[in-house]
Amino acid sequence: MSAIESVLQEKRVFPPSAKATSGAAISGMDAYKALAAEAERDYEGFWARVARETLTWHKPFTKVLDESKAPFYTWFEDGELNASYNCLDRHVEAGRGNDNAIIFEADDGTVTNVTYQDLLERVSRLANALRKRGVKKGDRVVIYLPMSVEGVVAMQACVRIGATHSVVFGGFSSKSLNERLVDVGAVALITADEQMRGGKALPLKSIADEALAAGGCEKVKDVIVYRRTGGKVAWTEGRDVWLHEIVENESATCEPEWVSAEHPLFILYTSGSTGKPKGVQHSTAGILLWSAQTMKWTFDMKPGDIFWCTADIGWITGHSYIAYGPLAIGATQVMFEGVPTYPHAGRFWEMIDRHKVTIFYTAPTAIRSLIKVSEADEKVHPKSYDLSTLRILGTVGEPINPEAWMWYHENVGKGQCPIVDTWWQTETGGHMITPLPGATPLVPGSCTLPLPGIMAAIVDETGQDVPNGQGGILVVKRPWPSMLRNVWGDPKRYQTSYFPEELGGKLYLAGDGAVRDKETGYFTIMGRIDDVLNVSGHRLGTMEIESALVANPMVAEAAVVGRPDDTTGEAVVAFVVLKRTRPEGDEAKQIATELRNWVGKEIGPIAKPKDIRFGENLPKTRSGKIMRRLLRSLAKGEEITQDVSTLENPAILDQLGEAR
Ligand code: WT7
C-alpha cells in the first residue's frame, strides 16, 4: 500500500512541452478526447477505420466485431491478410527497401544493419525452407533463440506461411521448454547452438536436446539450428539441420499465405495462478493492428526516428514492440543481444549515443539497477554520454516508483522527454493504459489514461463500478482487437480466468488492482491481486514455483510468496518443509542453494527464490489452508500482528522468520 499512497500524494505534474505536442500523432488533450469520444460513439466504426488505415488487407473485411460466441470474440473475421507482408513487402513495394529495419548490436559490440529488402529476403528463404520441410498453415513452430536477427526472421518466416509460432524465452529450462513443446503440439523447433550474454557463451541446443528427449514431442520432425557461436553441439542426424544450410539454395521470394484476420499469429506462454502456464493465443490482425497503431500513438514514431525496445523476443513486449509493431510501420529499430551491465553498466547510454536512438523503451527494474551503479560510478552515469537525440522514453512491465521515474526523467531525458508508463499484459497484446507523449500531463508513478477504444474501468468484487479514489479490480468492459482469443487447448480456463462469472461473465479481468485519481481520473496500478509475482517485470506464478520445489525428493511442502524488493520490484521467498528434520546453520545454507538451483533447472534462473526458509511446518488455518498473509509478513520481516491463535505450533513462526 505504501507505493500507492506515495503515488496518490504525488503532486508533481509534467505537462507536455510545446515541442512534444507540435506534430504529435495525437496532439493535445482535445485530440485525445476526440478520438476517445469517436470510439465511445461508434465502437465498431472506430476500430474498422483504424484497421483499414493501418493494415494492408488482401481481402477487405465486411464484419467488424462478432460477439455472438462471447467471450470468444472475433474481429474482422472475413478479412484476409498476411502479417509478414504487412511488416516487410509493403515497405519494399513502397520503395523503402534500402531503409534500415534493424540495427543489431551483438554482445561484443559488433553492429549489423539489416534493411527491409535484406529482411524480406531472409524471411522468404527461411519460409521456403520451412515449407519444403512440410511446415504448413496452422502448424505450430517453437522458437528457442537468443536475441538475434534470426529470432525475428524465424517469427516472420512462420507467419509468412501461416504457421503459428510459440517463442520460449532463452532463459527457460529444458523442462519448461518440454512442457511448452508438448502443450502446443510443435512440429518443428528453431534454436541456436549457444547464446552470448555478458561475454559468456550459454548453451541452448543442449537444453533443447534434453527437452526433446524428455518425451511427448514426437511430432517435432525438424530441429533447425542457428549457428551463433560455433560451439560444439550434439547432432541427431535426420532431425537436426543448420539454418544457414537449409536456406542457402532457397529462393529469396516467397508467396505469403493469406490468412483470416482471426488466424492464430502466435501462442505465448505466461504464468497464471495454477501450476501450469497458460498458452495465450493471439490473432493475426489483432496484434498487427494494435502494435502498429500504438507505435504511432504511444511512441509517436515518425520517419527518421530510431526506436529501441530492450525487451527479449521471448516476452510479449519483444513480440509486439520488436517483431511486429516497429516493422509493421516501417520503422528503424535497434536490437541488442546482450545485457545492460556488460562490458560496463553504461552500455544502454553508450548505445543510445552510438545509434542516435530517439525513442527508448525499457523496464523499471533495469532503471532501478542502473541508478545504483551510476550513482556510484560517474563513468557509467548517463551524464557521461550524449543522449541529446532522445525525445521519448517509455517503461513497461511493472509499476515504476516515483523516485525511479524522476531519475529517468532528469538523468536520461534531461527533463525534456515525456515518459510513457505503459500498462498492458501478455493477454492484451499491446498498450492499454498509457500517457500520450504529445498530449497527457504526466504524473510520476501513474500510467494515466486508457488509449482511445480501450474501455478500462475499476470495479468491486461483484463487477460494480467503484468511485474514483477507491481501489478495486482493473477490468476492460468491451472486447478490443488485440486481446487474447483463447488459452491454447483450454477454452474453459480462458473463460474462468478472464471472464469470471463472479463479475458477470462479460468483463475482462486483468488480475491487477488499481485506483483512479479523484480529480484527474488517472489510473495507478497497485499490483497483482492473484497469486502471481512480478520479478524484474517477469510474471511468475507462486504455484508454479511451489510445484517445482515439491518435485524435489527432499521437500515435503512449500509455500511461495513475494516480498517488495528495491531492484527487482518483487523477490521470491520460499517457505519449505523438508521430509527430514529441519536443517540449521551451514547445512540449511547448503540445502537452500541446492533447492535454488533445482528451481533454476525446473523453471529457469528467473524463478530462483531469493530467500528460502525452513520450518517444521507451515502456518495453516484449522481447515488446513496455508496462511499466506502471515507468510508475506514474515517474508518482509514484519512484526506479526495477525491473530495466530488458530496456529497449532506458533513456534514455527520463529523458525520461518529466519532468512537463509
Ligand atoms: C503484468 C503483466 C506488458 C508487457 C510486460 C509484462 C504488470 C505491466 C505495468 C505498468 C504497473 C505493470 C501488471 C500486469 N505491469 N506493465 N506500466 N505499471 N504494472 O507482461 O508478463 O503479461 O505481465 O505486469 O501487473 O498485469 P506480463
TrEMBL record:
Signal peptide: none
Swiss-Prot/TrEMBL keywords: Acetylation, ATP-binding, Ligase, Magnesium, Metal-binding, Nucleotide-binding
Enzymatic reactions: acetate + ATP + CoA = acetyl-CoA + AMP + diphosphate
Modifications after synthesis and translation: Acetylated. Deacetylation by the SIR2-homolog deacetylase activates the enzyme.
InterPro entries: Ac_CoA_lig (IPR011904), ACAS_N (IPR032387), AMP-bd_C (IPR025110), AMP-bd_C_sf (IPR045851), AMP-binding_CS (IPR020845), AMP-dep_synth/lig_dom (IPR000873), ANL_N_sf (IPR042099)
Keyword Metal-binding: yes
Chain residues that bind CoA: 197-200, 317, 536
Residue span(s) of domain AMP-binding enzyme C-terminal: 544-625
EC number: 6.2.1.1
Residues found modified as N6-acetyllysine: 625
Residues reported to bind ATP: 397-399, 421-426, 512, 528, 539
Residue ranges of domain AMP-dependent synthetase/ligase in the record: 95-480
Cofactor(s) demanded: Mg(2+)
Pfam families, sorted: ACAS_N, AMP-binding, AMP-binding_C
Record: residues binding Mg(2+): 550, 555
Listed NCBIfam families: Ac_CoA_lig_AcsA (TIGR02188), PRK00174.1 (NF001208)
Family: Belongs to the ATP-dependent AMP-binding enzyme family.
Chain's role: Catalyzes the conversion of acetate into acetyl-CoA (AcCoA), an essential intermediate at the junction of anabolic and catabolic pathways. AcsA undergoes a two-step reaction. In the first half reaction, AcsA combines acetate with ATP to form acetyl-adenylate (AcAMP) intermediate. In the second half reaction, it can then transfer the acetyl group from AcAMP to the sulfhydryl group of CoA, forming the product AcCoA.
HAMAP family documented for this protein: Ac_CoA_synth
Protein's recorded name: Acetyl-coenzyme A synthetase
Protein's organism: Caballeronia jiangsuensis
